[in-house]
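hi! just following up on the protien thing from before. the input was this:
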Amino acid sequence: MDRSNGSPSGREEGESGKTKYYVLMEELKSDIIAGRLRPGDKLPSENELSASRHVSRHTVRKALSILAQEGFIEAEHGRGTFVSRKIRRGKSPSLSFGGMDNRGSGNIAVITTYLSDYIFPRLIQGIDSVLTAEGYSIILKNTGNSRVKESRCLEEILEKDIDGLIVEPSKSEILCANMALYEKLDFYQIPYVFIQGYYAQMKNKPHILMDDCMGGYLVTNYLIELGHRRILGIFKADDSQGRERHKGYVKALFEAGYPYDPDMVIWFHTEDRAVKAAKVLELMLESGAAMDGIVCYNDQIALEVLKALQKKKIRVPEDISVTGYDNSFIAENGAVKLTTIAHPQEKLGAMAAELLLEKIKGVPDEESRVERILKPELIVRESCMERGKGE
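and the predicted 3d structure came back as:
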């Protein structure tokens, strides 16, 4: 029993509904991250914390135990408990700001969802071209768009001597599952930049994005201008790019005076991306669903759509028009050359690296020279055809 309120200590709750030890842990963590408690500072004793926060010593111990497990504090036998002395070890010797020589490891970590295929090699080339010119080495990690793997990657780089991080969030449409690890980066003053998405809880963190809403609008509006009336949309549900491209699709339909039909949208997730879109499309066609155009989340999905249509002996673009997104090698080299949206992969990577360098130097946002949003461009090829206006 916790004698402070007569209830079992494990269930002790504050007014917020959170357990008191968790509230205390969050308050102490906030003090550490904000710099009110600095590396090496000694924390008050358990008795002092118990008295000042009006909680039991057991509550204090549980809160401190979590902070110790997460690496924010460390206990020294006979001396007390201290804020972790691990500090950021500086910046690249080639960089200085405000007349100070900031020496660091010269290592930058880059975490992407994938490494070896599609648009990702060129994205990494853009990052590498900027960072190598500044004397940095890159530590590459990939998550496979898995939040569990993202956690492992973050844990691994926190054990390394790095000056900054560029990260593509995994399943960015879902709330971040690794806030404690990002808070550690903040605590150790390691700057990081998100690319191609960000988590809802971290929208104020530095990021470089494509205007995916505009991209989704451009391809859908193009089909509408060609006379299409029944346009199927295929989008990814667990990444923010999918949400934004869908938003652009809806905007184009609305502006044209077309009703939005949720039955004309196929949503897929990371785990079923290889099969769901094409399979659901086949089922829709077998059931007699009418469509004259298909807006695809990206070129990879468009390729699977083309295969599914070919199986059904449906011609592209004569029977159904198809658009992709990303202007990848798939769009240029398939049997049907895809109308798509240009993705300036190298430029996006270079911009992310330039923004990270600014953050390492301490350049304030109002003095930043790096563009944050990339504008999409429609690339017209062979996969779309004009429809009769009266159809």
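The longest helix spans residues 345-361.
The mean pLDDT is 89.
cheers
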